[in-house]
Amino acid sequence: MLLDRQSCRTVVAFSQMIVTTLFISVVVIRPSEANPDAKRLYDDLLSHYNRLIRPVSNNSEVVTVRLGLHLSQLIDLSCE
């Protein structure tokens, strides 16, 4: 399957949108609520978590977070 540049960009943008949507749904909608054991693990791991603590010495300092994701099982995409 050959795609022109615009179609290729559209496919990449759509893929990024899907990944972003999945990431947000995982963060916002906690999957641990479906399984009691997963919920207990989630609660145990985050029992002492404080959202106000930031990994900087000065609270006005900007925190840069880098997140890397990649698509797997991409079967056929040709951007020529």
TrEMBL record:
<feature type="transmembrane region" description="Helical">
    <location>
        <begin position="12"/>
        <end position="30"/>
    </location>
</feature>
<keyword id="KW-1133">Transmembrane helix</keyword>
<dbReference type="InterPro" id="IPR006202">
    <property type="entry name" value="Neur_chan_lig-bd"/>
</dbReference>
<keyword id="KW-0812">Transmembrane</keyword>
<feature type="domain" description="Neurotransmitter-gated ion-channel ligand-binding">
    <location>
        <begin position="39"/>
        <end position="78"/>
    </location>
</feature>
<protein>
    <recommendedName>
        <fullName>Neurotransmitter-gated ion-channel ligand-binding domain-containing protein</fullName>
    </recommendedName>
</protein>
<dbReference type="InterPro" id="IPR036734">
    <property type="entry name" value="Neur_chan_lig-bd_sf"/>
</dbReference>
<dbReference type="Pfam" id="PF02931">
    <property type="entry name" value="Neur_chan_LBD"/>
</dbReference>
<keyword id="KW-0472">Membrane</keyword>
